[in-house]
Structures are given as structure tokens and as C-alpha cells.
């Protein structure tokens, strides 16, 4: 008897990609100063230094005027050069005759472009490029954005066309790479409606996304009834595969393979069995008469990524259900 996947096998790659793409690069997004939007006298503000995870939304409405703005971290997309990660920013405003809308910045807040800092870091130096994608339009209004790394800036004006630029030959290392971002718009309607909208994406893509060799090591011990989980990594194919072998678990039981970004666990009651604090995906299998099972996991070809896996078994009988979990394993790709 076979059981359906709790999460489709391909979802494992999708779940891991935003966390571990672009080699070992991680990033944070925050407001550089007070940011906000206004519609006539109504405002919505966020303090400077606010860490954005996963997103920030601002909105103000007053009569025939409405303005909004947003910023989002955890943005990932595929490009011809490989996976890209970073942030996305947008502003919108619409005003009827005699109304005013726009973006705000500073303390005290005044009309101006919202400012953010996008900071990338890596344990080991990773070369690549920062891609900038902008799209915007304005009607009796103005909107634009700028992106700066060090002394080099890229500026954009909303003209109804998609625009693209890049910072080539950048390096992300332990000292970090800070990208200064600003985006804004304003409209003061006189005799006709006025409005603007603009969207900006700032993404880092590593030059080398080929992925290296992966190793599987032991993680956290669990209860004896959960069996012993072993694994080996096979990097010979298009995507790496982890071959899993479970031995001595509950026999003729439903099995669940759990994957987590980190080997952080807690004990289930006083059973000695462990469970992940933050599982992100799961698939099912079944053990044989001896409590053994074999399965595979396919994951993105990445460099410097790491995740953890364990397997649980559930044995159902007229007397109730019995649950046990295996030890965890840690998969590291260098």
C-alpha cells in the first residue's frame, strides 16, 4: 500500500530555494530612515531601522486621495545566470482634483523618496552582480527610484517602460555588501486626476551557482523506537539526491520524512523522540515488516547550503496510535 505525498516532491526544492539559493549568501532588509505615505493630511509611517521580514505595507486614504507603499524581503526569482535573491519595493498614489498624494521620509517626515538598506553577507567571498529591475508610470505626477552601492548609483524615472540595469563584478563576503535603495512618487491634482505607480526589484545573483559536493552527517539522537536513519548524497545527476535508509523503526507503519532549514529540535513529551521546531515540507512512505524503508530526497543544486532531515513513523492498531521519530541528519553542500 502506498500513501500520497503530503507535499509534492518538487515542493522541497521550491521550499528550500528562497532560503539557500545564491551560494551561502544571506541578506537583511531594513528602513534607512522614517518611511511613509500621505494622502492629503492622512499619513502612515514606519520607523527608521525597522527590519523588514517578510514585508512592510503602508497605506493612507483621505477623500479622493489614496497612497500606498510596500517593501518585501525573501524575494527570489530565476534568471538566465541562476537564482537571484533580494528585495522588492513599490509605491502607488492616486488623487482627484485638488488632492495631494506622495511618499514621505525623514524625521520629521517630509515629502521625499522612501529609503531602505539591503545588506548581503556570506561566510566566504562570493562574486556576482546586483540586478536592478524597475517599472513605473506617472500621469500628471512624478515617480522614480535610485539604487546605490558605494559611490556608484543607478537612477530610474517612471516613463511607462520596463527598465533594467546592473552592478557588475561585486563581491559579497563576511564584511557585507550594503545596497542603498530609494523609491518615491508625488502627485498634486489640478483640474484632472493625477497618479503614479512604481515597482523596483534589487537582486543579487552569484556568478557561480554550479553547486559543490554534498555530505551527510549525523544530527540529533532520538528514541530507540524511531529506528536509525542513515543517508548518502549523490551529486552525479542534474540535481543532487539524498538516499535515505531507515532501519529498526515501527513495522508496517506510515512514515513521514520531515525537512527543516536547521537541525533545531524539541522532545515530544517525555518520550525521548525528537521533532523539528521549524519543518518546512514533508513526504510520506511506509515501513516493511522489520520497520525498514528506503526513500530519496531531491533538492536544489546549491553551494554552501545546509538543511536537516528526520523520519517519523506512525503505527495504528485497535489500541490506538504509536508515534516514534528517528535521529536527524544534516546535509551540507560546499
Helix share bin: under 10%
Structural domain tally: 2
Radius of gyration: 25 Å
- State the end-to-end CA separation: 38 Å
Integer average pLDDT: 86
Characterization of this structure:
With 334 residues, this protein is mainly beta. It has 2 domains: 10-17 and 211-333, Immunoglobulin-like (Sandwich), CATH 2.60.40; 22-206, no CATH class. It has one helix at 10-20; strands spanning 26-31, 35-39, 42-46, 55-62, 65-79, 82-95, 100-105, 110-111, 114-121, 126-139, 142-149, 152-157, 162-172, 177-188, 194-206, 214-218, 228-234, 241-247, 254-260, 265-267, 274-276, 281-286, 293-298, 306-317, 320-325, 329-333. The strands form 5 sheets. Strands 1, 2, 3, 7, 8, 9, 11, 12 and 14 form a 9-stranded antiparallel beta sheet that branches. A 6-stranded antiparallel beta sheet has the order 4-5-6-15-10-13. The longest helix has 11 residues, at 10-20. The chain starts with 9 loop residues before the first helix and ends with a strand. The model is unreliable at 1-23 (pLDDT under 50).
